[in-house]
User: Fold this.
Amino acid sequence: MDNTQIAKEVIKAIGGLDNVNSVAHCATRLRVMVKDENAIDKDAVENIEKVQGAFFNSGQYQIIFGTGTVNKIYDEVVSLGMPTASKEEQKAEAAKQGNFFKRAIRSFGDVFVPLLPAIVATGLFMGIRGAINNDTILGLFGTTSKAFSASNFYTYTVVLTDTAFAFFPALISWSAFRVFGGNPVIGLVLGLMMVNSSLPNAWNVASGAAKPIYFFGFIPVVGYQNSVLPAFFVGLLGAKLEKKLHKIIPDVLDLLVVPFLTFLIMSILALFVIGPVFHSVENYVLAGTKFLLNLPLGLSGLIIGGLHQVIVVTGVHHIFNLLESQLIAADGKDPFNAIITAAMTAQAGATLAVGVKTKSAKLKALAFPAALSAGLGITEPAIFGVNLRFGKPFIMGLIAGAAGGWLASIFNLAGTGFGITIIPGTLLYLNGQVLKYVIMVLATTALAFVLTYMFGYEEAEEAEEAEKPAAEPAPIATPAKAEAETIVSPLDGETVALNTVNDPVFSSGVMGNGIAIKPSGKTVYSPVDGTIQIAFETGHAYGIKSDNGAEILIHIGIDTVSMDGKGFDQKVKAEQKVKKGDVLGTFDSAAIAAAGLDNTTMVIVTNTADYAEVKPVAEGTVAHGANLLEVK
Assistant:
């Protein structure tokens, strides 16, 4: 099937041109804004030649074609009348998708997701301290928990574990200003005002060690060290106010007057209106959450564990970020994390069962990496690529998730942080809970696997027939086998396993095998002698074919195509010959972070099928030019 016919099949499967608002593309996928998701024949899309997968993300229907191919398909669908849009226009349009509730939840997610690294790290430190702070462990070092608690080293661990939450409102206000278009530094300072040491500490007030300050005789004012909602709304309203002031204040006075008025107005609102009102609302939300979690006989785990992945499918699961952050800030522990872990574990087990039972080599190649990705806490490839596609595996996963959530509640499991689950999440349970946690994860996986294997997946006869070769296959030319070679690192940084990156297209391995790097520099170098196949105008991705035949994709950051080239400087063009070590371009990690995106860079051999093995040979810190991947 030629590319024109493929484009026609795509248009037909997504409901026709009348169902399309706009189309754009990035390095690997066609991004389509549709009017009605229900009009899409998703099975038909995934069965189109050259399509490597499809899923919804950020309001877009993303169809994976891979590097090079996606450009050609994009040109074809546009020539057939599909309307185009810039990445920024699509991003703005995606933000409008859904009802008010969905948009509000998406905004919560946009604010809290950039804070997760700090919360995850803090939770890990809490777990490690909990693991060693007992007399049995400390006895090996000739000390006791009482002596340890009085030591300077313990004080250092308190700094590690308490700082993020002591200044949590500042982090939230900073992120909210960034998301809603204000100056993040103004948001940061407003958040710091809410936890200023001149105000009575919220924890001391809660314990009775201090009393609120009363303004005008009836407005109680305290610090907001353990609050989430007040800081979120200060950030939201503050950003809107700042943007409004920029429009009405003359340019000559803008730098002086806008920050002054923003600080003055928002500090008054934060301490006297937003803080007291939303702190009360927050207390009700927290009380309701705790009521649900404290239902007897493990009912909370049964309910949440059974429904969590359904909520993930609807796209409003970011509400849990708010609830979990409240629990951690208030109590220093998160029972939600264990229950959510059970729900995700169950989907991993169901996907694994499909992979084991199917006779389809293509489905095995999708299911096993998706199950591994789910085991590392990223369930989208498992849900959208396998379980929902066949229906019953997803339902079996929900049943097992409910059972696993019930077990987590019965065990009273609670993480010392949130943001990581299943295998990496084990680190949140080192404070005496790890054995129960492992039992819960293994039992949930086993139950999901058995239920799916026995009742959740029956391979259709048509699929089995599709695996059989034709009686007299037409002879085809065998392409020359690519030569073995070593691919060096295109940048400086820390290596990251590809299956752990937060993008299902890359983590599932659908684009090919490789490795990821968390960059420490700003320059991208050629990892081979070869030819530039693709050099995107946005500067976020490069496709190179080595002289030995390896086709390599270097993709800087996750979803950085949405930045439309801001922060990227491309130095090469398509069809240009390059030598190993030549500069391909530069990028600004600070600009990527300011856009709320992840700068993790993927280095993938997209023609992995041409090799017997594509193996990472670097671990930990790597410099550009050092050996990174071996292909043979």
